[in-house]
């Protein structure tokens, strides 16, 4: 009997220690995904380099020296120099600032416009839904990069206009995602309970529905940052984004393609930087998606 009582006391003592918060569970799921952790580490490195660029970059990214142009990787220039003798490593480090800023700003523009449109469309329904969704369908009928090129053609080339263009191209993604999520959540029991309790429609939308839309929006934003960086690099490659001598990775690729036969490093290293950054964001986005999924154990 004493042995049974001891087991009961032990069971009572073990139960609280096994309790973990939802945030801890999400973090645990994320840390179990080795690829997501590797992406987070790589992304952290790029962010640190971007923030500390003036202190980490070995040379001035704009300083030209034609006497050492197209120098291959060496001890003094680990990644070599470009056609004007500028240090490629320093330009890549400073370019991380631009690419990360482009990704964040473009996704921010898209979310600020697309999320309210999608929420209003699904919650109000009727002609509002038809108007918003048909407008989004028109935008989705264009490839995203083509739509971005059209916007830049109207606004003019430049880094700021490129960010606006990429943001506009991503608006339909957020509008449709938010619409679908709100349509699902507003039919759930807790929303109906709030409505029966006399809560105003605006309170139901902003207090009960929209907070539950954050998880898919966050995951989509992480993946869209990668797409925005690629689109901005493509615009820079076409001469419609950042303009020389700005150390932007797409511009560096565009200038380096002329020297692929004699100095391939001028294009290879900016291309690797783009690839690693986009891959890191995609891995982190996949990891966050799996960690937020309650079906994952």
Keywords:
297 residues, mainly alpha, MetI-like fold, 13 helices, elongated, disordered N terminus
Radius of gyration from the alpha-carbon trace, in angstroms = 25 Å
Count of individual beta strands: 0
Count of helix runs: 13
Strand content: under 5%
| CATH topology value | MetI-like fold
What structural class should be given to the helix and strand makeup?
A: mainly alpha
CATH architecture: Orthogonal Bundle
- What string gives the helices and strands in order? HHHHHHHHHHHHH
Short description:
The chain is mostly helical and 297 residues long.
Structural features, described:
- There is one protein chain.
- With 297 residues, this protein is mainly alpha-helical.
- It has a single domain (22-292), classed as MetI-like fold.
- 73% of the residues lie in helices and 0% in strands.
- Helix 2 (22-32) packs across helix 13 and helix 9 (189-196) packs antiparallel against helix 10 (201-209).
- The longest helix has 37 residues, at 88-124.
- It is elongated, with a radius of gyration of 25 Å.
- The model is unreliable at 1-19 (pLDDT under 50).
List the helices and strands and how they pair.
Elements: H1 2-17, H2 22-32, H3 34-51, H4 53-56, H5 88-124, H6 126-140, H7 144-155, H8 159-185, H9 189-196, H10 201-209, H11 214-237, H12 249-256, H13 265-292
Helix pairs in contact: 2-13, 3-5, 3-13, 5-6, 5-8, 5-11, 5-13, 6-8, 7-8, 8-11, 9-10, 11-12, 11-13, 12-13
């Amino acid at each position: 009997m004493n042995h049974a009582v001891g087991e009961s006391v032990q069971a009572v003592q073990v139960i609280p220690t096994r309790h973990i918060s939802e945030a801890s569970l999400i973090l645990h799921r994320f840390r179990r995904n080795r690829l997501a952790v590797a992406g987070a580490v790589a992304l952290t490195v790029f962010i640190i380099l971007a923030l500390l660029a003036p202190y980490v970059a070995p040379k001035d990214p704009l300083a030209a020296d034609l006497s050492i142009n197209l120098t291959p990787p060496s001890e003094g220039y680990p990644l070599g120099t470009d056609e004007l003798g500028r240090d490629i490593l320093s330009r890549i480090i400073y370019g991380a600032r631009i690419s990360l800023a482009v990704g964040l700003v473009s996704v921010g523009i898209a979310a600020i416009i697309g999320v309210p449109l999608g929420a209003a469309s699904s919650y109000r329904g009727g002609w509002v839904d038809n108007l918003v969704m048909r407008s989004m369908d028109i935008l989705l009928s264009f490839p995203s990069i083509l739509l971005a090129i059209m916007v830049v053609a109207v606004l003019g080339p430049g880094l700021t206009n490129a960010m606006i263009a990429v943001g506009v191209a991503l608006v339909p993604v957020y509008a449709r995602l938010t619409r679908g999520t709100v349509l699902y959540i507003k039919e759930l029991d807790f929303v109906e309970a709030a409505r029966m309790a006399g809560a105003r429609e605006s309170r139901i939308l902003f207090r009960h529905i929209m907070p539950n839309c954050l998880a898919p929006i966050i995951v989509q934003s992480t993946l869209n940052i990668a797409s925005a960086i690629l689109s901005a690099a493509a615009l820079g490659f076409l001469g419609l984004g950042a303009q020389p001598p700005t150390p932007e990775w797409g511009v560096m690729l565009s200038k380096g393609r002329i020297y692929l036969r004699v100095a391939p490093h001028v294009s290879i290293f900016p291309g690797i930087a783009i690839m690693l950054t986009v891959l890191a964001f995609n891995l982190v986005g996949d990891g966050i998606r799996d960690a937020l999924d309650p079906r994952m154990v």
